[in-house]
Specification:
Layout: E1 2-4, E2 10-12, E3 36-44, H1 55-67, E4 69-70, E5 72-78, H2 89-99, E6 108-111, H3 119-125, H4 127-132, E7 141-144, E8 149-152, H5 173-183, E9 191-195, H6 199-202, H7 205-210, E10 214-219, E11 226-231, E12 239-244, E13 252-261, E14 265-276, H8 289-298, E15 302-306
Parallel strand pairs: 3-5, 5-6, 8-9, 9-10, 10-12
Antiparallel strand pairs: 1-2, 2-4, 3-13, 7-8, 11-12, 13-14, 14-15
């Protein structure tokens, strides 16, 4: 039997993964016999991996569903706040355990830094991701697909106090210089720019609008599904579409995003599981009706990006 997931993709029924639980003699996940879609990109964000909290189970649900998609996306891009609050080592250790089913799946994972992350602790748990960065002091990546590339930036500002976090995002001068050079190296291939923080914090609106082929900015941080656009001024026609994607399980819109690349345009669609704020209802409490209305409004909502 098969289930139907976001965008009409088939969900193959496979054994569920449960972080932190090892059952002797358990049936291993079945060998993948489906297909991959090189033009399908999955975007997740704001996992806030909290040992002992409700968030890890919700991330497990997302990873399990992604692995049951047929075709599978070739790439998953995670847009920061991987850790719960202060980027502790145990939070990344639990995250690594939850993400373990992706190993050997054929899916490539790219992870950005958010304001609740700490580069040193992340690198100790995920050294291969630090090694793959295109910059030494920031974690910056380019994810290549046949129809478009995705530039993944590092908007984290780290403070000296490891027990606090800094909310505003920013790009340092070295990263800005690298981004400008990279953006203007594209003359034909569409490119998306992504970071944890919204564009008004990263301060790169005009740079992206002026670039030859940048067709959109995608970010997390706000835990909502929100589409929008940016203008440079009132005398130019060009606008830049923006998209804020949901959290996998902390608060706000809860789910993930699938972005399908096609000729001439790309369409992002949310897989909305639920909505809650500031946390799920406690046992015995009634779910607010407004939560249900938001879930219905965002169910299968989409955002279209036209290529320049």
């Amino acid at each position: 039997m098969a289930l139907i997931g976001a965008q009409g993709l088939v969900l193959n029924e496979l054994p569920a993964f449960s972080a932190g639980k090892t059952v002797p003699g358990a049936t291993p996940r079945k060998k993948w016999r489906g297909k991959f879609d090189e033009d399908l990109v999955c975007i997740i964000s704001d996992m806030h991996t909290n040992p002992g909290g409700y968030q890890p189970a919700k991330l497990e649900r997302t990873i399990d569903e992604i692995l049951r998609l047929n075709p599978r996306p070739r790439n998953i891009i995670a847009l920061g706040d991987l850790a719960y609050l202060t980027g502790r080592s145990e939070e990344y250790a639990l995250l690594k355990q939850i993400l373990a089913p992706l190993e050997g799946s054929g899916i490539r994972l790219t992870m950005a830094m958010g304001n609740h992350d700490r580069r040193e602790n992340f690198a100790a748990c995920f050294p291969e991701h630090k090694a793959a960065s295109l910059l030494d002091d920031r974690y910056v990546y380019v994810v290549e697909t046949p129809r478009a590339d995705f530039i993944v930036l590092d908007s984290l500002q780290e403070g000296e106090d490891t027990m606090t976090w800094i909310t505003p995002g920013a790009l340092d001068e070295g990263q800005l210089a690298w981004l400008k050079e990279r953006l203007f190296s594209y003359t034909d291939k569409p490119v998306f720019v992504m970071a944890h923080h919204p564009i008004h914090e990263t301060g790169i609106k005009n740079l992206l609008i002026d670039s030859p082929t940048c067709c959109g900015y995608i970010h997390g941080h706000d835990h909502v599904w929100r589409t929008g656009w940016q203008k440079k001024n009132y005398s130019e026609y060009q606008v830049l579409p923006t998209l804020c994607v949901p959290s996998t399980g902390h608060w706000g819109d809860i789910g993930y995003t699938l972005l399908k690349l096609e000729d001439g345009q790309a369409t992002a669609r949310i897989r909305e599981y639920e909505f809650f704020f500031p946390h799920p209802v406690n046992e015995g409490e009634t779910k607010p009706h407004q939560w249900t209305l938001i879930e219905q409004e965002h169910k299968d909502a989409s955002c279209v990006f036209a290529y320049k």
